[in-house]
């Protein structure tokens, strides 16, 4: 799996934050007087963990920890002495610096950056002389446990852009008497005085309002004197973020001026409301009706710096307005995973600094504006999974010379460009699934010689794979051409040594499923046998590949998922599959594989899914399936020619959730140990329908995460489903009562066997059953009363048995139509016979026979529906493993399924 992760590495790199490096490599030696000043400063500092160990006179002070010198003048310009934060409180406390701050620091005349935050100065005041660092631009004294009055001398720092005096929640010792000095800090962009006592600071509002460059203002828990009623207009036109929480400012209706703050993105007014809710740290939902984002923003999820704005997964709705274009400095904009609707505003083209744009997973509609093509700096764009439509032309990409990643999957966009178009970009990752690109293979791709991943699935391509494709296919790590009508054979590259495959050895994912490809896989799988392929995922499902499956799997040792279902393969399943130690999922369904399952498969101990359904396999079901493949979650041998008994060893499969042995020639009895299938004993508590909605949201969030994430998701989906199907065999004997302890089962199908005896009386314990088919057996006795407890039951078929007496009355059981019960001696609604006759109490053999004849009128619609339910379920699940697209299909399918189940069956 490690290999697959690289595919999305680009994404991860872009999301990671930039890390500032404090110790510059200065090629200049430090100035002696400044070194002495620093050594003097060190003498006053209490440093328990010896963080300033490098501060010794033998060493050039520009090399000391926390010191940055100007690389031209060698003056000390930055002092970084913030304490790191540890997980353990003790470590945290110990590493903090304290003591006295020597005025010798004043010798650092060129100091522009001073960070003493997160230390413990035990309540000493902020030194007045800090007001004399004339070059200072950045001053961070937050969480440093200074006390007393904040010196007004700081007002001399006219170059200051960043001032953070954020106090400590538990150590509120700093206060301010008046704030006049602030008004001279005309360059100030960021100011935090949170947890500084401002209760004496009358007329505080005009002071802040007069700071022309202010972008961020934090005044939480400052005991601000309420004077909001005095505020009529504000002039904080550049303000981006404002927090006023925890001040008891009272009536919010007086805060209408907030709506005049046109650029506000972050607003924290929590605990302002004096009622009980106000006590909770609750984030205020504000309607930003005059803002760039029309809609409601639960503020807590906002994170931004001046260059980056992230509102990822904020339950944001509403739409984007043209004011979006105002964020000219924005380099990264992330609005992913919300419910933003409407169209992308034309002003998006004005985001001239933008490098990364994330609009994925929203409800954006309409065209992608042509102005998109003006984003000269954009490198990374992810607009996948919206409802964007319309036609894109060359203009949409005109100036995107730096575009290296375009994820636009899942939008029905049409690309209409000249066949000879050469894009201005050289991309690495293109994910254009669901676009309309066909019918010809898009020729412009041939220019993308640095491409590493390509997804043009479901894009209406109906040609063959062109020769030029090998221009770059040989360097691809990820290739998805699925769901097109591509025909012909998998290409090969002719060479002296014979045909070579047109993929590289480092391709990790290949999906050619749902096309019209044909021919043998021999060249593809077997050429260059000396080379090891890194592929982890191979999907060739639903094509016309034919012949025997070549026995060349030893060169593909990293495969985790193989999907070859729905092709025309014949012959034996090759032995060499047994060498695949990483294999988790093997799908060979719907081919013509024959003979026995090769014993070598017992070596694939990582297998979780084994799908051999709808083939011509025969022999016994081997007991090693039970003890050599302990991780199996799904085992389907459906519709083959297996004979003999169901081996008891299968009961050891603790993780098995789907066991489908239907449509074979199995005989003997159902193993009593079946209650050991513990994964079927437990179930998720949620009702199925609710889960789907939840999962849907969940999956969307993870849609572009690495493969590992997807495997995880698939686990979670599987948690929903538990199915047992032994139908259409010759199983005999009783239904063991032990089966009813499989409380988690959703579908149980034992139909068309030779089962005798009674339906276990506590069948009602299987409360999650949604489908129960016991039809066409020889079951006797009455329908157990407990069955009326099965409130999720959507499909029930008890027809064609020898059941007698009245159908127990319950809303559920009476809601099925008569076809669920025909072919028995049952009476009561929904059957026409209303149980008045005595012979229902003691049914006579004769009568039963007569009824049996009548009972032949089984509802075939119903039977095939039920069958469709589990088979359909099966085929969907089997292909669910990796692909995002499959997940969507799966959910659509489930929705349909539910519709079917609810409307046809009930
Ligand atoms: C500093 O950088 C220069 C050139 O980049 C390099 O030659 C030198 O070794 C570096 N010095 C240290 C101490 O890292
Ligand atoms: C000196 O520092 C400036 C800004 O920090 C940087 O742009 C420049 O490249 C540096 N020069 C050398 C020679 O390292
Ligand atoms: C200021 O210091 C605090 C506490 O160490 C830190 O959380 C914050 O990020 C610093 N500010 C900046 C802009 O680095
Ligand atoms: C602040 O600057 C004024 C002149 O601009 C000066 O007189 C005063 O001494 C300075 N205060 C401090 C603390 O540096
Ligand atoms: C804030 O200052 C005022 C007046 O100096 C005082 O009454 C109040 O107790 C202070 N608040 C805190 C939390 O120390
Ligand atoms: C608001 O600020 C701008 C400059 O930032 C200034 O030109 C304008 O006069 C101010 N308006 C008021 C009412 O203070
Ligand atoms: C493309 O970018 C250039 C340079 O930034 C600019 O002059 C030109 O107008 C842009 N063209 C379009 C169509 O955006
Ligand atoms: C199965 O694995 C064992 C040990 O790992 C090995 O000796 C044996 O040859 C393998 N069998 C097959 C068929 O690969």
From TrEMBL:
TM regions (residue ranges): 858-882
This protein's record includes keyword Cell wall biogenesis/degradation: no
Cellular compartments annotated: Cell membrane
Domain Leucine-rich repeat-containing N-terminal plant-type: 32-70
Recorded GO CC terms: plasma membrane
Signal peptide: 1-20
The entry's keywords: Cell membrane, Glycoprotein, Leucine-rich repeat, Membrane, Receptor, Repeat, Signal, Transmembrane, Transmembrane helix
Mode of membrane association: Single-pass type I membrane protein
Primary localization: membrane
PANTHER family, alphabetized: LRR RECEPTOR-LIKE KINASE, LRR RECEPTOR-LIKE SERINE_THREONINE-PROTEIN KINASE FLS2
Protein name listed in UniProt: Leucine-rich repeat-containing N-terminal plant-type domain-containing protein
Organism: Rubroshorea leprosula
């Amino acid at each position: 799996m490690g290999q697959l992760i690289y595919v999305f590495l680009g994404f991860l790199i872009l999301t990671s934050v930039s890390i500032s490096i404090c110790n510059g490599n200065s090629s200049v030696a430090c100035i002696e007087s400044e070194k002495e000043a620093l050594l003097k400063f060190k003498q006053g500092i209490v440093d328990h963990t010896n963080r300033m160990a490098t501060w010794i006179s033998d060493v050039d002070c520009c090399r000391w920890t926390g010191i940055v010198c100007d690389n031209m003048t060698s003056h000390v310009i930055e002092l970084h002495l913030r304490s790191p934060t540890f997980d353990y409180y003790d470590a945290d406390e110990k590493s903090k610096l304290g003591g006295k701050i020597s005025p010798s620091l004043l010798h650092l005349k060129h100091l522009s950056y001073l960070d003493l935050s997160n230390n413990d100065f035990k309540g000493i005041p902020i030194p007045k002389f800090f007001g004399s660092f004339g070059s200072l631009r950045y001053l961070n004294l937050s969480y440093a446990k200074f006390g007393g009055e904040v010196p007004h001398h700081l007002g001399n720092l006219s170059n200051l852009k960043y001032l953070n005096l954020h106090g400590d929640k538990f150590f509120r010792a700093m206060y301010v008497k008046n704030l006049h000095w602030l008004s001279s800090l005309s360059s100030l962009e960021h100011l935090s005085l949170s947890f500084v006592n401002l209760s004496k600071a009358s007329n505080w509002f005009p002071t802040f309002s007069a700071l022309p460059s202010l972008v961020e203002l934090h005044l939480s828990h400052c005991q601000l004197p309420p004077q909001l009623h005095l505020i009529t207009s504000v002039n904080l036109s550049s303000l981006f973020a404002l927090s006023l929480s925890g001040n008891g400012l009272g009536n919010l209706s007086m805060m209408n001026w907030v709506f005049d703050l046109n650029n506000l993105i972050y607003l924290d007014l929590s605990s302002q409301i004096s009622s009980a809710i106000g006590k909770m740290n609750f984030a205020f939902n504000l309607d930003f009706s005059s803002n760039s984002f029309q809609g409601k923003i639960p503020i807590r999820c906002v994170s931004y710096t001046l260059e980056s704005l992230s509102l990822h997964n904020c339950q944001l709705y509403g739409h984007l307005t043209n004011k979006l274009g105002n964020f000219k400095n924005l380099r990264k904009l992330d609005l992913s995973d919300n419910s933003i609707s409407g169209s992308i505003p034309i002003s998006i083209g004005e985001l001239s600094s933008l490098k990364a744009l994330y609009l994925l997973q929203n409800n954006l509609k309409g065209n992608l504006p042509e102005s998109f093509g003006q984003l000269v700096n954009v490198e990374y764009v992810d607009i996948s999974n919206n409802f964007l439509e319309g036609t894109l032309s060359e203009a949409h990409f005109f100036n995107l010379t730096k575009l290296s990643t375009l994820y636009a999957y899942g939008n029905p966009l049409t690309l209409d460009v000249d066949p000879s178009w050469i894009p201005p970009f050289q991309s690495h990752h293109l994910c254009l699934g669901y676009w309309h690109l066909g019918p010809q293979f898009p020729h412009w791709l041939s220019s993308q010689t640095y491409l590493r991943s390509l997804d043009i699935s479901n894009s209406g391509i109906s040609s063959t794979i062109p020769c030029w494709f090998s221009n770059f296919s040989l360097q691809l790590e990820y290739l998805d051409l699925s769901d097109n009508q591509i025909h012909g054979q998998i290409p090969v590259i002719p060479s002296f040594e014979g045909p070579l495959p047109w993929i590289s050895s480092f391709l990790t994912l290949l999906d050619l499923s749902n096309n019209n490809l044909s021919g043998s896989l021999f060249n593809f799988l077997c050429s260059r046998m000396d080379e090891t392929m890194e592929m982890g995922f191979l999907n060739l499902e639903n094509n016309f590949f034919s012949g025997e499956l070549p026995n060349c799997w030893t060169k593909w040792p990293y495969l985790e998922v193989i999907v070859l279902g729905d092709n025309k393969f014949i012959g034996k399943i090759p032995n060499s599959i047994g060498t695949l130690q990483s294999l988790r999922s093997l799908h060979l369904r719907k081919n013509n594989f024959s003979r026995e399952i090769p014993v070598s498969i017992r070596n694939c101990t990582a297998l979780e899914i084994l799908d051999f359904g709808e083939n011509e396999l025969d022999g016994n079901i081997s007991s090693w399936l039970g003890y050599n493949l302990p991780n199996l979650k799904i085992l389907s041998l459906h519709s083959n020619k297996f004979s003999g008994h169901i081996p008891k060893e299968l009961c050891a499969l603790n993780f098995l959730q789907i066991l489908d042995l239907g449509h074979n020639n199995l005989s003997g009895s159902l193993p009593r140990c079946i209650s050991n299938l513990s994964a079927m004993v437990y179930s998720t508590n949620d009702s199925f329908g609710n889960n789907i909605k939840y999962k849907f949201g969940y999956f969307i969030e993870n849609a572009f995460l690495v493969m590992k994430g997807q495997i995880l998701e698939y686990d979670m989906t599987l948690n929903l489903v538990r199915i047992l199907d032994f139908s259409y065999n010759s199983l005999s004997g009783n239904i063991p009562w032990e089966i009813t302890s499989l409380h988690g089962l959703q579908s149980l199908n034992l139909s068309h066997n030779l089962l005798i005896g009674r339906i276990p009386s506590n069948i009602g314990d299987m409360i999650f059953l949604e489908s129960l088919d016991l039809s066409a057996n020889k079951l006797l006795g009455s329908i157990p009363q407990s069955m009326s407890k099965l409130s999720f039951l959507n499909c029930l078929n008890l027809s064609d048995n020898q059941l007698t007496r009245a159908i127990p009355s319950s809303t559920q059981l009476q809601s099925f139509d008569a076809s669920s019960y025909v072919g028995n001696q049952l009476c009561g609604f929904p059957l026409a016979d209303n149980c008045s006759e005595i012979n229902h109490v003691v049914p006579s053999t004769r009568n039963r026979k007569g009824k049996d004849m009548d009972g032949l009128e089984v509802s075939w619609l119903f039977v095939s529906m039920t069958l469709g339910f589990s088979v359909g379920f099966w085929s969907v699940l089997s292909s669910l493993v990796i692909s995002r697209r499959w997940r969507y299909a799966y959910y659509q399918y489930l929705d349909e399924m539910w519709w079917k189940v609810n409307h046809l069956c009930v």
